[in-house]
Amino acid sequence: MDVQSEIDRRLSAAPVVPLVSADDTQVAVETAKALQDGGLSVIEVVLRSDAAQACMEAIIDQTEGLIVGAGTVLTLQQAQSVVASGAQFVVCPGLVDEVVEYCLDQGVPVYPGTMTAGEVQRAYALGLRAVKFFPATLAGGVPMLKAFGSVFREMRFMPTGGVSAGNLAEFLALPSVLACGGSWLTPADAIAAGDYSKITDLAREAVAIAADAR
To answer: Looking at residues 103-128, what average pLDDT do you find?
Structure first.
């Protein structure tokens, strides 16, 4: 499978990437399954706990039909580790050349975080045509993306950080937006309560909003 083409295909149909943050492997698996039941099949597991990579591995091992990536990847060593563990794409909060170059060399899709024109231009020079825009609302939101889109005509963006059901449609209305990422789909209180149906409902809502926006 050409992972990049498959990611693009899935995000064209449902342009939302939920963030899964967990420190318990079974909770992570149930969360991923709930998101999949709601129509989202590109999942980013963020490395924000000591057990995060194990959670990613469990999702990969115990589910079918998902594309699972690692987020909050900060160093080359982390990138190498998550790719060895089966991560199908890598997401970073910022732009680090050696992480991007490693992922490109391995044929692993990578979405580094950008928030300035200089960072977007650097990513473009490295050969990327899609990047994360983070933190989206604090970095200028829709107006900033409109400005970037007029200059970087080949670049597509994945805004993350402050995206919610309330502003999802506004972001997705921009032609330069590939998809939106967010943790609003996986609220900590619902996960703590084991209310996975809530997560499925939020995923379905996001898919419906995206369908209307596009």
So the answer is: 98
- The answer to whether residue 44 is catalytic is yes
Cβ burial of 31 (10 Å; 0-12, 13-18, 19+) is: buried
| CA atoms within 13 Å, Cβ hemisphere of 122 | 16
Mean per-residue pLDDT for 108-132?
A: 98
Structure tokens at 65: 């039909």
| pTM for this prediction | 0.97
Whole-angstrom CA distances from 74 to 17, 63, 78, 141, 168 are 19, 26, 7, 23, 26
Is the CB of residue 155 less than 8 Å from the CB of residue 131? yes
In this structure, are strands 42-46 and 67-71 parallel, antiparallel, or unpaired? parallel
Residue 214, pLDDT above cutoff 90: no
Contacts 24+ apart (CB under 8 A), 27-32: 27/55, 27/191, 28/55, 28/56, 28/58, 28/59, 29/55, 29/58, 29/59, 29/62, 29/63, 30/194, 30/196, 31/186, 31/191, 31/196, 31/199, 32/59, 32/63, 32/66, 32/68
What pLDDT band is residue 132 in, cutting at 50, 70 and 90?
very high
Active site residue 98: no
pLDDT given for residue 15 in this prediction: 98
Residue 177 has pLDDT above 90, yes or no: yes
Tell me the C-alpha distance between 17 and 182, whole Å: 7
Which of 89, 200, 16, 63 has the alpha carbon at shortest distance from 99?
A: 89
Catalytic residue among 30, 33, 44, 57: 44
